[in-house]
């Protein structure tokens, strides 16, 4: 692992951000100028190499809200207030209660770090011997900022749709380390334009293969661009970038080589991982609480090894154990299996059913027990698309992807889903295209940041 040199100013900055995350607006997390001491490219790289800050606590309330699991009534009462409201798609008022919006605060804390780096490196002298290291720091900060903006947009902005994206409320785009600058909300289009622009700048700066899987790379940039364009329903570009990512890294795990009975069969930093990242550890995600949706679980064939690799039985209920983090923390990073599915879906949507099924079969044959898999076929592109979307939900469950998929697939009548849950005898429903597919902003942001609340 990376050697981490922690500067006094950085400890104070992050401590303040985390301490205040549930109490005060993130803008209050100001670095003490007198303690800022980074003077070299290596110093800024060290800042970005703080994996507990930069590679953890990704927004996860969308997973709490999606349709891949349920909770018992007793468990529901034992989770945090914001989780309870996310689980039942609760009303805006008092959504976060005394908890504070952790997804928002952790992400903007990282964005502040990115901006500190991007502003700070402007004053450094770069020569031929330091150019590569400088480029890595610059590109990494741009990548991290883009990743958080994208993840925030999946929870706190409407799904991207033309032409309304130009007027729908987006995120406050904090692009400088000066936290005293007043920044209003952008539009959804401006939010996506910014993060895509950052990624396009980052791509030529980063190596194909990073020194560590916790660092960004050119491959990761392409993978994230594919994910972003898929959320925009721009299937031509999502296809192009999934293909670009797979041209650089396309290895898949043979699930036959995994130990099915292991508590965590898939290892951290495995060969499918393009960029390592974990979600916030919400109480609802604990194995003894989370009960996998029965329809999802039963959709796996008995010869499909994912059924035993991904899931386990806890107190008579089916729970999840298949995180690419190698433990109980949910993986929210980028991996080759997602890119195969992205490319397959985009091939189908652009009419190339043969290429779509080739990608799907290439993935699935590594997931089934040796000698039992027969290649799937599709009569046409629509049939291929239906098969791919079914496998997409199964393969990528509990990775903070399903929520975005639900939001975008609501725009297609063939794949719309109405989600329902029952808690303490009361039924809750999330209708197709409901405004509650957008989470509310924390009231503290409304009061102190001057932001406009999402209409739900």
UniProtKB/TrEMBL annotation:
GO terms for cellular component: cell outer membrane. Keywords: Cell outer membrane, Membrane, Signal. Residues 338-415 form the RagB/SusD domain. The keyword Membrane applies. Residues 1-20 form the signal peptide. SUPFAM superfamilies: TPR-like. PROSITE patterns: PROKAR_LIPOPROTEIN (PS51257). The keyword RNA-binding does not apply. It is found in: Cell outer membrane. This is SusD family protein. Residues 25-230 form the SusD-like N-terminal domain. Belongs to the SusD family. It comes from Mucilaginibacter pineti.
